[in-house]
Structure formats: C-alpha cells, structure tokens
Amino acid sequence: MEYKLEIASKLAAVTGLEVSQVESLIEIPPQLSMGDYAFPCFVLAKTLHKAPPMIANEIAGSGELKIEGVSVSCAGPYINFSISRDILAQSVIGDILKSGDGYGKSDMGDGKTVIVEYSSPNIAKPFHVGHAFTTILGNSIARIYTKLGYNVQRFNHLGDYGTQFGKLITAYRLWGDEAALASDPITELLRIYVKFHEEAKNDPSLEDKARENFRKLEEGSEAEVELWQRFRDLSLEVFKKTYDRMGVDFDNFNGESFYSSRIPKVVDTLKEKNLLEESEGAQVVMLEDCGLPPCIVLKSDGTTIYASRDLAAAIYRYENYKFDKNIYVVGLPQQLHFKQVFAVLKKMGYEFADNCVHVGFGLVKFKDKVFSTREGNIVLLDDLLNKTVEKTCEIIRNNSLARGGDMSEEQIRQIAEKVGIGAVIYTYLKSGREKDIVFDWDEMLDFEGDTAPYLIYTYARTRSILRKAAEQGIAVASADKLGVLAGDDEYAVIRSLADFKDSVKKAAASYEPFMISRQISLIARNYNRFYNNSSILNAETEELVSARLALCEAVCSVLKSGLELLGIDVVEKM
After folding, report:
1. Catalytic: 128?
2. In angstroms, rounded to a whole number, what is the distance separating the alpha carbons of residues 525 and 448?
3. Active-site residue among 46, 49, 50, 131?
4. pLDDT for 75-134, tens place per residue?
5. Which domains does the chain have, with CATH numbers?
6. Is 131 tagged catalytic?
7. What is the C-alpha to C-alpha distance for residues 256 and 464, in angstroms, rounded to an integer?
8. Is 367 helix (H, G, I), strand (E, B) or coil?
9. 125, 147, 501, 505: which one is catalytic?
10. SS3 at position 276
11. pLDDT of residue 352
12. In terms of DSSP bridges, do strands 282-285 and 276-279 run parallel, antiparallel, or are they unpaired?
C-alpha cells in the first residue's frame, strides 16, 4: 500500500483540500518515535478560524482517518501517523523485492517530453572541472526524469559559434602547428587561443582580424567554415572519450551554429511585433516592465550573440518537441541572461516560456586556484579523474594487501575506475547545487564519510553477505515473512527505504539530485548501524535470518538505483 497517498486521501476528504496539496504538505517527523508521517494544520487555521492544535485534535479524533495498521495521534498542531512496524516491513521490503531496480519508478511523466540541456562545452577548449558541474548535474536530472516516466531529450548545446571562433581562426593561421593539432587537438587549440590574447594586448589589430573572420564565418565563407568544422569535429572526438568514461550520453548535439540560420526569422518576428529597438547601434528588446535590462538581439556590427541564438533554439525546440519542460543546466552567473531570454519569448507571445527553467549551480574550486581559459590556468577534468582513480587504486590495493592480496591488479584498476569516478560525481551532487564545491581528495575518498566510496562499499559488503547466504543455501524471505523485522535498527532502515520514492519526486520537482544522495546516504548509515548491532547470517532463528537477508536485498536494490540516478556505477566486490 502507498501509505502516504492513502493518508493524503483521507485527510483530503476531511479537510476539503486537494489530495496533491495534502501530499505536498505531509512531512517526515524529525524523530522515529514521533511516527512515520505528520500533517501540519497551520494551513487550515484561516478557513476554520481555529488554532492549529485544536484543529489537529478535532480531525484526529473524528474517526475519519482510519487506515488498517496505522495509528493516529496529535502533537501540538501536527497530526501524526504511525504505521505498524510489521506491516511497514512487509509493505516496503515486499514492494522493493518485487520492483527490483524499478523501485521508485513512476508514470507521472507519461506522454510528457522534457528537454534537459547540459554540458554544452565550448568547442576547441579543454573540458575542465567547471564544465563537469553542468555535465554531472544535467545527466542526473535527465536520469531522474526518465525514472519518473518522462520522455527525456538530452541536449548538448555546444558552444560552437561566436567571436571566439574568429579569434581561433586568426590564431591558427598565424601560429598553428598542424602536427600538434592532429596528435592533441584540444591542447594545441588552447595554446593558440591563449597566445592570441597574449599577443592582442600589444597588437589590438588582431581583434579586428578576429571580428572579420567571424563575420566571414557567419556569411558562410568556405575557408572559414572548413576550419571551424575541423575544430568542431576534433573537439567532439576528444569530448566523447570523457563522456563515455563518465557514462554520459546525449540525444542531440545541435550547437549554437545550428540556430544561426534561424535568427533572421526571430528578428523578423520581433520587428513585426514592434519589440525591437535600436540602442547605441545595437538591436534590443526593452524589458523595463519586467524589471530587467534590455536584451541585446543583434550587436552594433549586426552579428548575433548568446541571447539571439537561445531565442531561436527555444522556438525550434518547442516547434519540434512540444516540450512540457525545457531545462537549462547552466551556471548561476547566467541567471540574468535566461530571465531576459524567457521574458522576450513571453513578449513574443510564446506561452511555453513559462515552461523554460534555468537550473543554476555554484562554482568549482581547488583551494586557491582560479580558473581562466584565456590565461591557460585550468584544472582539466581528465586530470582530476585520473588522479582520483589513482588515489582510489592505492586505497583498494592496500586494503587487498591487508586481506592477504585477494585481488589482482586488473580487478583493482577496474574497481578503482568506477569508485574514483563515482567519488568525483558524488562530490558535485552531495549538496545543494547552488553551493560552491571545494575539492579535497581526503574527504571525497573517505570510506567512512558522506562519499561515493562509502555508499559503494556498503553495497559491495551487503552483496558479499547475500553471496555467502546463497552459498549456504539460505533463501531470502518472502514479503509475508517479514513481520519479524520490528527492532529499532531494522525499523530505521525500513523507514529510510520507504522515503526513497519521495526523494526521487522531490529531486525532480526542485532539480536537486542531492535529495537522492541525501536519502541513500541516510539508508547506508542506518543500514551500517543495523549491520554493526545485529547478526544477519547467525541471527537467533532461521526466520529472522531470511528476513534480514530480505532487508539486505532491499538495501542493495535501492542503493544501486539511487547511485544510478546520480550517474554512479556500483561494484560487486571491494
């Protein structure tokens, strides 16, 4: 039974509120002793003209909230609901064992399309740790919406257009090394890009040459387009290796260049609606009535900018996908930009602008390092991944040696690759997305902390128990035999497993994967407390052994599912 929904339905019938509204108001009490769910009556005070505690007492005592196996009580303004532990164990674990990795799936998104735009690196520039935030966050959001039944379209809106390509073309013609470009394209392109800015400090005419080359590119000049296409193709080959390594994929690679030819139609529409004005030579849309500065559509030299391309992209996406949500996973500094773009779309009469969402995120730091592509001062993502995997190798190798060397070097490296990359991904997703990240290897590789290694190790250790049980011929209990799981430690695990479904829905609603990372971390902590305090394979009775094995199976299933939603793979042995 879906107890939260059943409770919400009963409360809705009594209060007159919508079931969905009641469900959104229901809370999880801070202490297990206070019950499994709590409904705050503050929202009813205005309409009923009574104090919340009085309302709670009257509703709880009305006899209208009866649900089999659920007791109702009051605690001030809250109505608390406590589910019988044996029934909760049978319901939750039985549901997980039946659903397997599908636990938490929903059909709420059936028939609805969600576009998630993420990663979107600049062509010809290295993939650094800053780019990883949008890549990891967007990949997780896409997985979460897929879990909830949405048709998810993953867009990589490549930064493959703009004045920087005029600079790059100019730099390549002046200082490019063909052999270096063939062997290590991104490094060579970065070298000449950095050199351009160094030389331009003393020779401003280079900027004029760059603008001219970009103008030729926009006009479709064969020589410039050929160079640009080569830079794009070489960059994508390099990016794909990183994406594959991290388990990230896309359905669409339409970059900024794809929408360039669609901008004239956007400009014509803006003119037809009398929305375009001239300001200091540029063409802008005034947004004073929205409390925003003007949105530049065309620069004074007639070239396009990010806003004009994003306007064209949004219109194209709606015309071709009829999206229910168009999610942009882009850093917080671009908040104003997206407010302007969405406001212009709204002024153009596109109601879908209300379904465009900017999902911002914080900065990535390495203590005192500051990143700048122009200065060449960056931390490459591949370097971060390699270093983290090597450090993980060392930890696993030492653990293996302490056990007598029970793992080969190949096994160690295969496991370290998953655990190390998982550690990096989890570091980005373990807190709210708007918080800045400061990398600390000791912290992110701590097998006892709030880390991916801790979660993956919990999964692997639990899998080991289940393998031993199978070798001894001990079966996992069926759902109707789980009523014996009524101890405090067992109940804490079951309670946290029950809340996993909610965490997936909350993560989608808030675009916050940390809702899931927080929940599976709680599951792992509760499980490890149970593991340390209770015997599993040597429990008092055979019935209890089988029931605790079912609990182990459920924990493994939910940990694996939760980690997959974050983009992290599990390992069967560590």
Report:
1. yes
2. 10
3. 131
4. 999 999 999 999 999 999 999 999 988 899 999 999 999 999 999 998 888 888 888 999
5. 3-83 (3.30.1360.70), 163-249 (no CATH), 381-566 (1.10.730.10)
6. yes
7. 49
8. coil
9. 125
10. strand
11. 98
12. antiparallel
